[in-house]
């Protein structure tokens, strides 16, 4: 996951390969609650691991439910079977509507004393219609803040005294989650009372496909619900949740929408499609119908029961005018696709966008306008005009702590103007798809992946600076010196010396180095050699092997392979002159020899390596001389390099300077 303040996505061109999507949020949280309400043990496979599922799991644990993690995406749940082990708890539910609403209903019926709260935005998301429905039954719920909104206090009630004779009325036109919450929880009442429970929906029910997911999963847990149109739902008398034992969660169809759009936008080679695994034509999720909308706009989509394959067909995309009530979440993706269409596209009947993680109609309009688009909105619709190539602007997209805004705006990186897109607070995707950007980067290609080169003499602070700059930007890091150091070590282990006579053998070793970089450690054939290669002797060997032209050639391709999305910071001697001559920012870092010797001295002493200042200074000057005078790739500033003498600068000042220079090369205005 990218936890950086922003993530710059360079202009993207094509997409191919396969993505495996994480589990559906809607299914995961429903299954978790049903497994907790049921008797017996349920093993849940392919569960989504995200913020919203984590708050649900934490809440269930707080209620005394046994939850055992079997792997990153599977859990074993020991159901409560109608009896709370912890009848009092304060539950923090983040911004997860799929936890807040159903838990409110379930806890109101289970009897106990609970406080339910969330992040500030959760306290602005309505819940009054659900509380009203539960109050009709005889449940006791207080608002602790604004009436109609969380936080809530739930008081104990006796399920035997609930008034179940008249139908329970609930509004369906604000959020379908109110009805889902009642459907998931009221089997408790129907079971305990031996009476059928009838729910009547008041107003036009929105987001019906989410109700279908609820009914489908209830059936998997042994609860049959009779549905009369979309107005009346009857839960049978005496019903009981029964664990299915094992249950698999489908991949998230809403998350699939970004990759379906990607396939439609990316100019892949003929016959090359993007494959999406884990969700397909057999999905029970309503958002799978995004496929129809994408086809309407010109995507070519083939499908099997649990896979999709997508490629670009019509180009530009065809404008669309769609009642998107059935796919409210995935429809946000259409609003970004609309930028690439042949006319204005309108999405209608999406008033629910206004009460989601943020007011999504206003937020989408505001951010689309930043890209240069003309956008019109109404209380329940949005109309997006396409952008001509010259109309695109580079924008820093504000994401409103809304995962879907972050994900759908990443698609703007396919703009024909070749502009990057800046996504602010990219970690908001953790709500449903923590590895979204990594997954995106694994299937797209960018014509120009940015590189920041930091070259300079030994101990000038290149590594320190490069690691921090990479960290701030979420970029990869190449410590090119370590490649020479490892080559030197491999050479010694083969009984060779850094002489021209052994050049071909050392180059052959360098070519096939079984090298891995894992979490900042350097592994040679699986052995962690990070510390071994840091000694001054290893540095001296590195300096010597690096003068051999065949060794330098052998390491060329390996170094270039580090240039991966979203970008790279490379530190060394010839990053800017030889390896990445087209890098948009090259820094030549220097400090006085005395300063550098002192820094290295301190560094080695702190690692417990004993040495003297004089010998270090002599070593360092010898290395400087060899690096600068060798015939191949000598240590020289690139012509377009910016020089930074950090003798009098702190590490932080150097980092700020380089980040400011980087910002100057970018088309974004500071956020
Ligand atoms: N601007 C700076 N001011 C003071 N010390 C620094 C500065 N930059 C780096 N250092 C310190 O100097 C030492 C050598 O830095 P390093 O990044 O290993 O250099 P290089 O990669 O150029 O050989 C480290 O201990 C580091 O903390
Ligand atoms: N791009 C590079 C990086 C390192 N090197 C050589 O490899 C040696 C070790 O690199 P390093 O970056 O780990 O060295 P320090 O700067 O940390 O001393 C240097 O002394 C250089 O001679 C090189 O020739 N070209």
Automatic annotation (TrEMBL):
Name the record gives this protein: Multifunctional fusion protein
Pathway(s): Metabolic intermediate biosynthesis; chorismate biosynthesis; chorismate from D-erythrose 4-phosphate and phosphoenolpyruvate: step 6/7
Sequence positions that bind ATP: 456-464
Catalytic activities: dCMP + ATP = dCDP + ADP; 3-phosphoshikimate + phosphoenolpyruvate = 5-O-(1-carboxyvinyl)-3-phosphoshikimate + phosphate; CMP + ATP = CDP + ADP
Subcellular localization(s) per the UniProt record: Cytoplasm
Coiled-coil region list: none
Similarity field: Belongs to the EPSP synthase family. Belongs to the cytidylate kinase family. Type 1 subfamily.
Subunit and partners: Monomer.
Keyword Amino-acid biosynthesis belongs to the record: yes
ATP-binding keyword on record: yes
InterPro entries per record: Cytidylate_kin, Cytidylate_kinase_dom, Enolpyruvate_Tfrase_dom, Enolpyruvate_Tfrase_sf, EPSP_synthase, EPSP_synthase_CS, P-loop_NTPase, RNA3'P_cycl/enolpyr_Trfase_a/b
PROSITE patterns linked: EPSP_SYNTHASE_1, EPSP_SYNTHASE_2
UniProt cross-references to Pfam families, sorted A to Z: Cytidylate_kin (PF02224), EPSP_synthase (PF00275)
Residue numbers annotated as active site: 329 (proton acceptor)
Record function comment: Catalyzes the transfer of the enolpyruvyl moiety of phosphoenolpyruvate (PEP) to the 5-hydroxyl of shikimate-3-phosphate (S3P) to produce enolpyruvyl shikimate-3-phosphate and inorganic phosphate.
Residue numbers binding 3-phosphoshikimate: 25-26, 30, 175-177, 207, 329, 356
